[in-house]
TrEMBL record:
The keyword Lyase does not apply. Residues 6-60 form the HTH cro/C1-type domain. The lineage of its organism: Bacteria, Bacillati, Bacillota, Bacilli, Bacillales. Keywords: DNA-binding. InterPro entries: Cro/C1-type_HTH, Lambda_DNA-bd_dom_sf. This is Helix-turn-helix domain-containing protein. It comes from Halobacillus amylolyticus. SMART domains: HTH_XRE.
Length: 119
């Protein structure tokens, strides 16, 4: 499964094996071997592959069907806007939030999006 997911994401991202290899720090032959299932990436390379392909290790391993690493994209966007650490990413704060409060937060975000992009 990992070999198929590496190959399909690489192609979706319009990367050659050489381009992916450069991002991961291996040779194009190593990428080719992964994709043909001759070898498997080690844990360090798996993390680098996931980062290079903007996905998660869970997706590559078949533990999730979510291709995109949306949380990373959101964090990078906020960081680019000057927000280093927001309460949105404070795990301890979220552990105390009740389900009805999560619904309110979700509804508020939807309201804000509708204000920005009325249909």
């Amino acid at each position: 499964m990992i070999n198929q997911r590496i190959r399909s994401l690489r192609k979706e991202r319009r990367l050659t094996q050489t381009m992916l290899a450069e991002k991961v720090g291996v040779s194009a032959q190593v990428v080719s071997n992964w994709e043909r299932h001759y070898t498997s990436p080690d844990l360090d390379d798996l993390s680098k592959i996931a980062y290079a392909l903007n996905t998660t290790a869970d997706y590559l391993l078949g533990l999730s069907d979510e291709k995109e690493d949306e949380m990373r994209e959101i964090k990078l966007f906020l960081k680019d806007k000057g927000y280093e650490k927001t309460v949105i990413f404070d795990k301890e704060a979220w552990l105390n939030v009740q389900p009805e409060e999560i619904n309110q937060i979700d509804n508020y975000f939807r309201f804000l999006l509708q204000q920005k992009h009325p249909s």
